[in-house]
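User: tokens in, sequence out, please.
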């Protein structure tokens, strides 16, 4: 069988003929303009599957190879990385923006983390989540880097994974200010980038290196 080409921002599907794309939707936030362009594209190209992903993103599935670039052009959106070895996305709950349970600003902090780290290369893919309260609706403890808001500040976790070999992330630091939380995330990801093996997700990295060694290096 002929090998299909790799297209930027497109994932070859099970049928070995069509592709899926994931437009960037920061923290699952959508605008009327994007929704209008999305509807126009889906109708025009008769895209058969529109799926909301676990990472608060929208996947368009079943696009013919020769239409992928045109779909991207018409969407006018940045690519949401889904397979590359980099930070794929930051997800976040509403936090104090609208939720009555929120105690910290999850959307604001999530936006700052996405702006700083999105697309940056790492040994394996990295997913980040920010929750505005201990209810942890953004699944922060199941992401490579998780931040959870409490009444005392932000707690930072590392090494979570919701995959086949699930792992709850380890708490690295607690009751941090917003700036302290961001700096802790920077240090964690820098240490991971320098010391992890190729394609070694953070969960397996933590198991191999040990969380105490990571804390010592980061803190």
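Assistant: Sequence out:
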């Amino acid at each position: 069988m002929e090998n299909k080409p790799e297209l930027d921002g497109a994932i070859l599907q099970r049928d070995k003929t069509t592709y899926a794309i994931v437009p960037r939707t920061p923290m699952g936030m959508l605008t009327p303009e994007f929704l209008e362009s999305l509807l126009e594209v889906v109708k025009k190209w008769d895209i058969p599957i529109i799926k909301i992903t676990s990472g608060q993103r929208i996947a368009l599935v079943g696009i013919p190879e020769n239409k992928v670039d045109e779909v991207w052009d018409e969407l006018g959106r940045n690519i949401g990385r889904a397979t590359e070895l980099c930070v794929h996305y930051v997800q976040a709950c509403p936090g104090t923006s609208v939720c009555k349970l929120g105690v910290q600003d999850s959307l604001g902090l999530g936006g700052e983390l996405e702006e700083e780290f999105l697309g940056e290369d790492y040994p394996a893919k990295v997913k980040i989540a920010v929750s505005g309260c201990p209810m942890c609706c953004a699944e922060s403890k199941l992401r490579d880097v998780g931040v959870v808001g409490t009444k005392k500040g932000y707690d930072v976790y590392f090494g979570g994974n919701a995959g086949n070999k699930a792992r709850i992330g380890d708490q690295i630091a607690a009751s941090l200010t917003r700036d302290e939380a961001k700096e802790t995330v920077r240090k964690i990801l820098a240490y991971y980038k320098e010391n992890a093996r190729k394609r070694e997700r953070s969960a397996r990295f933590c198991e191999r290196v040990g969380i105490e060694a990571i804390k010592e290096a980061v803190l």
